[in-house]
From TrEMBL:
Family, similarity comment: Belongs to the sestrin family.
Name of protein: SESN3 protein
GO annotation terms (biological process): cellular response to L-leucine; cellular response to leucine starvation; negative regulation of TORC1 signaling; positive regulation of macroautophagy; regulation of response to reactive oxygen species
Cross-referenced SUPFAM superfamilies: AhpD-like
Organism: Loxia curvirostra
C-alpha cells in the first residue's frame, strides 16, 4: 500500500507531508467507527468517480490485505446494501456537493437492517472527501501517469518516496512508540505476502475461465474512453478484478464503471450568485472553524484536530516567490486561489471582493485550477507544463496542495451542514 509518487510530490513541502501522513494513517489504520476493509472499499468507490486508477489499484491491494472479501471487487452488485447505499452521497459529493441535503443523511441513518450510525457516516464522509481531493492532487501533479514512462512523479525522488504510509509516519513527529502500538491494530500493515498472494490467486482462478473476446472488447472500449451504459458492467464479474502476477503484485483495473452508478453525472457550473441567492453557501452562516470542526471531532474523535492542522499547514506554506511574481502579498495570493476554488462550489465569503480573482490569477492558471478541482480526470501533462512556465516545480505542487485542501473543506462543509440540519 504505497504512494511513492504522491509522497515524492508532497515532499517538496515536508511539513505539509508530515501532516498529511498523520491524517491518512489515522483515517485508514487507527481505531474508528468503520471496519478496515470497508474503509478501503469506500476509498475505491471515491477514486472511481474520477477514474483514478492510481488510487483504486492502491486501495484494492490494501482492501485484500485488510481481509476484504474478494467477491466485493467484482463490482457494486456484490457488496452489502449498507455500503452500496453510500453511492448517492459519493456521487454528489464528488461532483456537485451543493446538492447534499438532510434528506440524503436521513435516508442513510433511518432505522433499518442496513442503517448507518452517525459516527460511521461521518467517518465515511471524511474518507470520501479525502479521496476525492487526493484524486485531484494525483491527476494535478501527474501521479496518475505511468511512472516508468517518465511521469512527473519521478522528477525528484525523495527518501520518503520508498516508504509506505506507516514507515513514513514512523520517521516523523507521530512517533515510533505510537506506531509500534497501533501497527498491531492495523490489519493493512501486518498481513503477510503469502496470504495476500493466496487471496489474489483465488481471484485469478475465478476469472480464468472468462470469455477472452469479452475481455478484449472491454479493453478496446476502455481505450476509446467509453464507460458502461448504465453505470454497471454488463457482466459484473468482468469488472475490476486484480490478478496476481509472478511477483504477487496486483495488476490494473479493467473497468472502473463497476464501482459507479450514473457515470455520466459530473460537475456542472454552480448557479451564478445573482441568479439564485438561496443556493449560495455563506461561510458566515456555517464555517469550518465555528461549526464543522466541533461536529466532526465530536462524532469521530480527534479527526477534527488532524484536519484542522492540515488546513492550517497548507495556509502557512511559504509562497513569497509566487506572490512576488504576481505583485501581491503571499496571504492575498493564497486567499485568491482558495476563494476561487470555493466559489466554483458555490461557497462565498461576504468580506471578499471577487474581482481580485481575475486580477491575481492569469487565465491559464484559472483553467488549470478549475480542471484539477472539478474534473481532474481531464487533466493532462501539457496543462501542468503550460501554466506558470516561469515558476518552480515546487510552486506548482503548492498550488495543487491548495486545490486538495480547499476542495476537501468544501465537500466537508456541505456534508457536515446537512448532518447538522438533520440533527436539528
Amino acid at each position: 500500500g504505497r504512494l511513492e509518487a504522491v509522497t515524492q510530490q508532497m515532499g517538496y513541502h515536508p511539513q505539509y507531508l508530515d501532516s498529511f501522513l498523520k491524517t491518512q494513517h489515522y483515517l485508514m489504520h487507527m481505531d474508528g467507527p468503520l471496519p478496515f476493509d470497508c474503509r478501503h472499499y469506500i476509498a475505491i468507490m471515491a477514486a472511481a468517480r474520477h477514474q483514478c486508477r492510481y488510487l483504486v489499484n492502491l486501495h484494492v491491494l490494501q482492501f485484500l490485505r485488510a481481509g476484504g472479501d474478494p467477491q466485493w471487487l467484482r463490482g457494486l452488485e456484490f457488496i452489502p446494501p449498507k455500503l452500496r447505499n453510500l453511492n448517492e452521497i459519493n456521487k454528489i459529493l464528488a461532483h456537485r456537493p451543493w446538492l447534499i441535503t438532510k434528506e440524503h443523511i436521513e435516508k442513510l441513518l433511518k432505522i433499518s437492517e442496513w442503517s448507518w450510525s452517525l459516527a460511521e457516516l461521518v467517518h465515511a464522509v471524511v474518507l470520501l472527501a479525502h479521496c476525492h481531493a487526493l484524486a485531484s492532487f494525483v491527476f494535478g501533479c501527474g501521479c496518475e501517469q505511468d511512472e516508468g514512462l517518465g511521469g512527473r512523479g519521478l522528477l525528484k525522488p525523495l527518501s520518503l518516496g520508498n516508504q509506505c504510509f506507516c514507515e513514513a509516519t514512523a520517521s516523523n513527529s507521530y512517533g515510533q512508540e505510537l506506531l509500534r502500538i497501533n501497527r498491531k491494530r492495523s490489519l493493512d500493515s501486518c498481513m503477510e505476502l503469502d496470504c495476500l498472494r493466496e487471496r489474489m490467486q483465488r481471484i485469478h482462478v475465478e476469472t480464468e475461465g472468462r470469455d477472452e473476446m469479452r475481455l478484449l472488447q472491454q479493453d478496446r472500449e476502455e481505450g476509446e474512453g467509453q464507460g458502461a451504459e448504465a453505470g454497471h458492467c454488463s457482466d459484473p464479474a468482468a469488472g475490476l478484478s486484480p490478478l496476481a502476477d509472478t511477483d504477487g503484485e496486483v495488476t490494473g483495473a479493467t473497468n472502473l464503471a463497476c464501482y459507479m452508478q450514473d457515470p455520466d453525472f459530473g460537475y456542472q457550473d454552480f448557479a451564478r450568485r445573482d441568479e439564485d441567492q438561496t443556493q449560495v453557501f455563506r461561510v458566515q452562516d456555517y464555517s469550518w472553524e465555528d461549526h464543522g470542526f466541533s461536529l466532526v471531532n465530536r462524532l469521530y474523535s480527534d479527526i477534527g484536530h488532524l484536519l484542522d492542522e492540515k488546513f492550517r499547514m497548507v495556509d502557512g506554506l511559504q509562497s513569497s516567490a509566487m506572490a512576488k511574481r504576481q505583485g501581491c502579498e503571499p496571504s492575498v495570493f493564497k486567499r485568491g486561489i482558495w476563494n476561487y476554488i470555493h466559489c466554483m462550489f458555490g461557497i462565498r465569503y461576504d468580506d471578499y471582493d471577487y474581482a481580485e480573482v481575475n486580477q491575481l490569477l492569469e487565465r491559464m492558471l484559472k483553467v488549470y485550477i478549475k480542471t484539477v478541482t472539478c474534473y481532474p480526470e481531464k487533466t493532462n501533462s501539457e496543462m501542468f507544463d503550460r501554466f506558470w512556465k516561469q515558476f518552480k516545480h515546487s510552486e506548482k505542487v503548492h498550488v495543487n496542495l491548495l486545490i486538495l485542501e480547499a476542495r476537501m473543506q468544501a465537500e466537508l462543509l456541505y456534508a457536515l451542514q446537512a448532518i447538522t440540519q438533520y440533527m436539528i
